[in-house]
Amino acid sequence: MDRTLPAATGFLAAVHQDGGRAPAPVFASLGSCVLEREERHGHTLHTGLLHTGAPEAARAYGPRCAVVFAGELYNQAELRSLLPPGAGPDGDAQLVRALFDIYDLHAFRLLNGRFAALVQGEGRVLLATDHAGSVPVYLTAAPGRVLAATEAKALRTAPTGRPLPAARPVRRLPGVHQVPAGTVLEVALGTGSCTAHRTWAPPLSRRILPEDEAVAAVRRALEHAVHVRMGPEVPLVVLSGGIDSSSVAALAANRAAGPLDTVSMGTDEADEFPQARVVAAHLGTAHRELTIPTDDLLRRLPHTVWAAESLDPDIIEYLLPLTALYLRLGGTGRRILTGYGADIPLGGMHREDRLPALDTALAHDMETFDGLNEMSPVLSGIGGHWSTHPYWDREVLDVLVPLEAGLKRRYGQDKWVLRAAMGDVLPQETVLRPKLGVHEGSGTTSSFSRLLTAAGVPEGRVHHAKRLVVQELFDQVVVAGRHPDEVATEEVVQLAAGQLESRTQPIS
């Protein structure tokens, strides 16, 4: 039976040589959790699986390996074509196990999806995330044991592991590391030593294409990415009325069995409702508008850090309105498509006319996105929903990133190739509308800044103060394990303002 949500959206797993225990599963994402213990190859595999009703589809066992899988694959048909005739695995975990039997860890180079996975083989444990690291996975390893989870907070009470140079250490969680995007980490159980195997990297070369070929390639890739993310029921699309989200909505509406559901979010300070209404009316969607008071929005800062487990204040600022939206949606778990992330491979956020500078910025953004966790499904998971982002489909990135910069900034327009690709299905005013980020359209940036200046932070030090706020929130809701409902944004802002002032006081 086709399911609206993936079989599992997260996991905590532990492999022990001595039959040791795993920490109690702690997740920000909502869902049922089932615990299982399995003896394999002389080791004990403990799993705590955050599932949506069918946990058996997120685990697979075979003679060579066991697989624990959270998320979903988007190229199942192509992957099944690699298996012997008649070998049709039921779910994604079973498919990965069958491919692993043939390709070993190289199987992960074949996968296009939004996932995190653990594979236990004889004497080794492999941890993998998708090409974009869009489902983060963390680990701690030592001789005789490996623990892994899709949320760092789940490992806060785990035994301290050894340093792992191949992975990224997590702030103030000794021995906890994050698996890099597009990477399989292979851990030797006997020693705890770790080897990284890259499975994807952003293209560095640039392609020169005629306009019509580039436009057709972008349309084809994005259409397919939206189609494979639709699910068996009509999805919900987050719609701002900009070109990114409107393109996803238009392509989803073309595929939906009935009227597409769309939703827009604003605050009492700012919104993009008129622009979104134009698109919703054009596509005939069932459209909702949610207005979140600015004070309520800012109170969701702890929840945003709790979900994203990111330390970057700019990213948290981008994600805050989305987190507030997901928490406000209510209802049963929805499959949500977004236009998030298009600006990164298309350079849309830079508003740069000079092509060398645009391509430099784009290359930098594609090199440094890893670890920001801005695509994490936990952001929607704390509301019980599953979000997915077509612009960060592997095949879409393989088309968008290498296009030469002149196709991205052309005729005075940012993201020209996308606008040209979608011109036949969207209103002209939407196609021509200049870029505006969700954090700008909702007034998030200005309201967060105003909260800090009201606490006495000088305007020139607001960004640094935002970083201190995010760090303090991370330390409270991730490292210390506090629930964000217990953390007051205003108190953390006052604490950060005090830290900033003490650092600038002259020494007498």
UniProtKB/TrEMBL annotation:
<dbReference type="InterPro" id="IPR017932">
    <property type="entry name" value="GATase_2_dom"/>
</dbReference>
<keyword id="KW-0067">ATP-binding</keyword>
<keyword id="KW-0547">Nucleotide-binding</keyword>
<feature type="domain" description="Asparagine synthetase">
    <location>
        <begin position="389"/>
        <end position="460"/>
    </location>
</feature>
<dbReference type="InterPro" id="IPR029055">
    <property type="entry name" value="Ntn_hydrolases_N"/>
</dbReference>
<feature type="domain" description="Glutamine amidotransferase type-2">
    <location>
        <begin position="64"/>
        <end position="156"/>
    </location>
</feature>
<protein>
    <recommendedName>
        <fullName>asparagine synthase (glutamine-hydrolyzing)</fullName>
        <ecNumber>6.3.5.4</ecNumber>
    </recommendedName>
</protein>
<keyword id="KW-0028">Amino-acid biosynthesis</keyword>
<comment type="pathway">
    <text>Amino-acid biosynthesis.</text>
</comment>
<dbReference type="Pfam" id="PF00733">
    <property type="entry name" value="Asn_synthase"/>
</dbReference>
<dbReference type="Pfam" id="PF13537">
    <property type="entry name" value="GATase_7"/>
</dbReference>
<keyword id="KW-0061">Asparagine biosynthesis</keyword>
<dbReference type="InterPro" id="IPR006426">
    <property type="entry name" value="Asn_synth_AEB"/>
</dbReference>
<feature type="domain" description="Asparagine synthetase">
    <location>
        <begin position="218"/>
        <end position="356"/>
    </location>
</feature>
<dbReference type="InterPro" id="IPR050795">
    <property type="entry name" value="Asn_Synthetase"/>
</dbReference>
<dbReference type="GO" id="GO:0004066">
    <property type="term" value="F:asparagine synthase (glutamine-hydrolyzing) activity"/>
</dbReference>
<dbReference type="InterPro" id="IPR014729">
    <property type="entry name" value="Rossmann-like_a/b/a_fold"/>
</dbReference>
<dbReference type="GO" id="GO:0006529">
    <property type="term" value="P:asparagine biosynthetic process"/>
</dbReference>
<keyword id="KW-0436">Ligase</keyword>
<dbReference type="GO" id="GO:0005524">
    <property type="term" value="F:ATP binding"/>
</dbReference>
<dbReference type="InterPro" id="IPR001962">
    <property type="entry name" value="Asn_synthase"/>
</dbReference>
<feature type="binding site">
    <location>
        <position position="92"/>
    </location>
    <ligand>
        <name>L-glutamine</name>
    </ligand>
</feature>
<dbReference type="GO" id="GO:0005829">
    <property type="term" value="C:cytosol"/>
</dbReference>
